[in-house]
Amino acid sequence: MTHDSNCIFCKIINGDIPSAKVYEDEDVYAFLDISQVTKGHTLVIPKTHTKDIYSTNEQVAENLFARIPKVANAIKSAFQPIGLNLLNNNEEPAGQSVFHLHIHLIPRYGENDGFE
Ligand code: 5GP
Ligand code: ZN
């Protein structure tokens, strides 16, 4: 596991920054986004520090994506959305603001739910 002491998400994994945990296992951590685009907006991250989709390796990507159905089902049960979007931003022009690979799970509740 790579750890970057300057990375907010590495600090969240370590528990140095508190977070609302949705799911955790040996490879991934999922927690509520601090700025909820819609209710239940969750981030899923690999525990090993990985900057973005370009710099990840197949094993890290495989572990990350393999856990998404489990997290998606947890969100579906907890929040009962009528849909769910997955989003991954890479590099600043594409909207990446935290440089530790993450997948957004954005529950949808119908028109005007806040997410375009
Ligand atoms: P990005 O813009 O890089 O795709 O997404 C980064 C996300 O991380 C943003 O939606 C932002 O609200 C969230 N975020 C940033 N800092 C924190 C934090 O300290 N705690 C939590 N839970 N989310 C954070
Ligand atoms: Zn990190």
Task: List its salient traits.
116 residues, alpha+beta, HIT family, subunit A, 5-stranded antiparallel beta sheet, 25% helix, binds guanosine-5'-monophosphate, binds zinc ion
Bound molecule kinds, no repeats: guanosine-5'-monophosphate, zinc ion
The tally of strands reads 5
In the residues, how many domains can be counted? Answer: 1
CATH fold descriptor: HIT family, subunit A
The main sheet comes to: 5 strands, antiparallel
- Rg measurement, Å: 14 Å
- Beta fraction: 15-25%
Series of secondary-structure elements, N-terminal to C-terminal: HEEEHEE
- Termini separation comes to 35 Å
- The helix tally amounts to 2
Oligomer: single chain
**Major sheet: arrangement of strands:** 1-2-3-5-4
CATH superfamily: HIT-like
At the first level of CATH, the class is Alpha Beta
Can you put this structure into words, describing what you see?
This is Protein hit. It comes from Halobacillus andaensis. One of its GO terms (molecular function) is catalytic activity. This protein has 116 residues and is an alpha+beta fold. It has a single domain, classed as HIT-like (HIT family, subunit A, 2-Layer Sandwich), CATH 3.30.428.10. 25% of the residues lie in helices and 22% in strands. It has a 5-stranded antiparallel beta sheet with strand order 1-2-3-5-4, covered by helices on one side. The chain is globular. It starts with 7 loop residues before the first helix and ends in an 8-residue tail after the last strand. The site of zinc ion has 6 residues, from helix 1.
